[in-house]
Design a protein that fits this description.
By secondary structure, this protein is mainly α. It is built from twelve helices and two strands, in the order H-H-H-H-H-H-H-H-H-H-H-H-E-E. Helix 2 runs antiparallel to helix 6 and helix 2 packs antiparallel against helix 9.
């Protein structure tokens, strides 16, 4: 049994799981692209999301202003590799326009947005909101997901809600890292969890003994 998230973090860190990954794990950390990716990755594999992002990048559309004015059908076509492209196109356009109306720019959005505001936007749930805050806005927000649940479950930790799982992950880390360190620590912790589970699972069962 892993007693807390700090113990899990240190065990994962020894695995050197992020050696060949971007510095903060999520590609293009701190950019508007993260917001688009956070929506596209819902119920999709990242390799499919990458195709959609490249389609948008090739058209110079991974920015706030162009996505506020893009034709919906054009966006649907470009992001179709990610699946659920009709609803995702709607969510992306609505979020871009809401950011423009409420904050004026992506930079202001990153400085001022609250998690509660994001959760009020259509198509943005707790995981997407935390991904946007953690990887897009460089905030100290921990992201938890199905990979997290699978790894913690392998160690006997079960959670009824997203919030309780997130709280467990956060608690052990804030006791050991200063507030200014937490954005980086949370980002890397989530990334290490995802990479470990992807590399050490068989039939969706995590081989947790490989951490011991």
């Amino acid at each position: 049994m892993i007693k807390d998230s700090y113990e899990l973090y240190t065990l994962l860190q020894k695995q050197d799981l992020l050696r060949d990954k971007p510095p903060m794990w999520w590609p293009n950390y701190g950019s508007f692209e993260v917001l688009v990716g956070a929506i596209l990755t819902q119920n999709s594999q990242w390799k499919r999301v990458e195709v959609s992002l490249e389609n948008l990048r090739s058209q110079n559309l991974l920015q706030l202003e162009p996505l506020c004015h893009i034709d919906t059908e054009r966006l649907r076509m470009l992001i179709s590799p990610s699946g659920l492209f009709k609803s995702k196109a709607e969510y992306i356009i609505m979020l871009a326009r809401a950011i423009k109306e409420s904050y004026g720019s992506f930079e202001n959005f990153c400085r001022e947005v609250k998690r509660e505001w994001l959760l009020k936007q259509k198509g943005i749930g707790p995981e997407s909101a935390d991904s946007i805050l953690c990887y897009g806005c460089k905030r100290g927000e921990m992201v938890v997901d199905a990979y997290t649940a699978r790894l913690l479950g392998a160690f006997g930790h079960e959670f009824d809600t997203y919030a309780t799982m997130k709280a467990w992950c956060v608690q052990g880390l804030i006791e050991h890292f200063k507030k200014e360190e937490q954005p980086k620590i949370f980002a890397l912790f989530h990334g290490m969890i995802v990479e470990f589970v992807k590399a050490n699972s068989k039939n969706k069962k995590v081989e947790a003994e490989r951490l011991k």
